[in-house]
Amino acid sequence: MKSILVIDDEKSIRDMLRAGLTQYGYNFYDAGDGKNGVEVYKRTRPDIVLTDVKMPEMSGLELTRQLKAIEIDSDIVIMTGYGSEELVIEALRSGATNYIKKPISLNELFNILDGIILNRERRRKSEVIKDVVVFEKKKLVIDNEISRIWGIINQMLFNIPNEVSDTNLEGIRLGLYEIILNAIEHGNLGISYEEKSESIQNNRYLDLLESRSMQPDRKQKRVFIDCTIDHMGLSVEIRDQGGGFDFHEFAEPESREEILRAHGRGIFLASLYFDRIEYTEPGNTVTVSKQFQ
Q1: Domain 135-291 sits in which CATH superfamily?
Q2: Is the pLDDT assigned to residue 126 strictly greater than 50?
Q3: If DSSP states are collapsed to H, E and C, what string results for 202-265?
Q4: What's the whole-model pTM score?
């Protein structure tokens, strides 16, 4: 059974989430502050932690750091309201998996949690000797089946150097997932941010993906990836066959206004994990890079 630990100093929020998440099939644990949350985590080892970013005694940022020190693969979702943007950014940089705005939409939360559970299973990879590879360049072509993204990322990063820390590697993986997901959803399938938000609210996101994927003018579109890895760093170019978008509006992805916006979530999250993100006109090609040293 899936399990989740909710940490929030407001009992009413914990009770609301308990009702929704237990009905959705989660084994539910909770704590009223970060210190107790760490103890509950050690005792129960839940699949996912959902925590408020602002709490007395221990913030969601410090909680994230402590949980990642206990288990680097822990998945942590930050709950945030207006005025806590900088804490959210630092929590994501410290290893949190995602964030959700208050007041919480249960459908949006379920969509985020489903993705995390699915990704936990798909991102596992076999042990491999990597230090014998000093340079690698791969060209990949993928269709619009979102369930295959983690397999593609595993293929791309198969020979990434052992010296790359677990935290940096997890950030690279999450950033690539968001960028490739954007290329499929908003690029090839032409799903607008408004359409995606509405479909999630109405619990019809998968229906929207399926119907858009079957349209004749989108069915044959592909995403093209060029990936280069050496001992110094990683560079990945991702190109979809959509019409592009005005990427200039996301020139400041860490602004206070954007952190709480649903629009540009993928770009914002990816910006935390890579040293550089560069779009090429008309906006259907993006290059991301990460220095290892």
Answers
A1: Histidine kinase-like ATPase, C-terminal domain (3.30.565.10)
A2: no
A3: CCCHHHHHHHHHCCHHHHCCCEEEEEEEECCEEEEEEECCCCCCCHHHHCCCCCHHHHCCCCCH
A4: 0.71
